[in-house]
């Protein structure tokens, strides 16, 4: 097994894995805080780092049928959310390629102003 590569986000507002503090996303990549995840409130991001995606599954979510892949922290393997692979309804297509991070399993790296 090779050495684990972890991407560091050079930003003062970073969301991290609450289990191991690996960087996951920046505030600038946050699209919306108005989502519901499996663990409660969730955030939609344009892009994330240091995650691994599981197999794609078709699920019926609150907003309709989607193909999603669960994402886990690549450092500690904690479930952190899911990636939208495909939306079947036209008004949900904007989510494709975006990632949901569950608020219950992420933290802010430091206190933000």
Question: What would you say this structure looks like, in words?
Answer:
- This protein has 113 residues and is mainly beta.
- It has strands spanning 14-17, 23-26, 30-37, 40-45, 51-61, 64-73, 79-87, 99-102, 106-108.
- Strands 3-4-8-7-6-5 form a six-stranded antiparallel beta sheet, with no helix packed on it. A three-stranded antiparallel beta sheet has the order 2-1-9, with no helix packed on it.
- It starts with 13 loop residues before the first strand and ends in a 5-residue tail after the last strand.
- The mean pLDDT is 93.
- What would you call the quaternary organization? single chain
Strand order of the largest sheet: 3-4-8-7-6-5
What is the β-strand count?
A: 9
The rounded Rg comes to: 14 Å
Structural class: mainly beta
Q: Enumerate how many helices there are, as a single number.
A: 0
Mean pLDDT reading: 93
User: Major beta sheet, specifics?
Assistant: 6 strands, antiparallel
Helix content: under 10%
Low-confidence runs: none
Secondary-structure element string:
EEEEEEEEE
